[in-house]
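We give the entry.
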Amino acid sequence: MLAGFAVAVLVGVSAAIAQTASPPPAYRPGLGDLMIETIQSRHIKLALAGRSKNWPLASFELGQMEESFERVARVWPTWRSYSIADMVEVVKAPMAALQEAVKAKDAQRFAGAFGQLTEACNGCHAGVNRAMIVIKVPDASTYPDQDFAPKLQ
């Protein structure tokens, strides 16, 4: 009987502790972490796919980049006094131009629009006093384990 009472007390105490214990804070990656891991990597892959004229992959990476920008703005609505959503607006026109170039399977238009996207990124960095972060059109793959050549469908 005493053992049953002890078990009941332990269960009750455990339940009370579980109800009052605070859950750990949710992980919130830094803005720089998100930019490097989600935006910069997509920027590189998008360039490589377009350069290889792999239009399905370019379209996919462009969509991934758009989603990444949306997530960054959701996780970091403001950084210091800057609105991330306003900053993301700067890249929408170049990304729309890229989408049109991909649909047209036009490598020359793609290269021009990609240059505009890259310039927009750097303009945004300069606008928030981070001009030392300069993005460029990649000249080599940092993904040796991915083949960017188009595949027959």
Notes: The chain has a mean pLDDT of 90. Helices lie at 2-20, 31-51, 55-75, 84-104, 107-127. Residues 31-51 form the longest helix (21 residues).
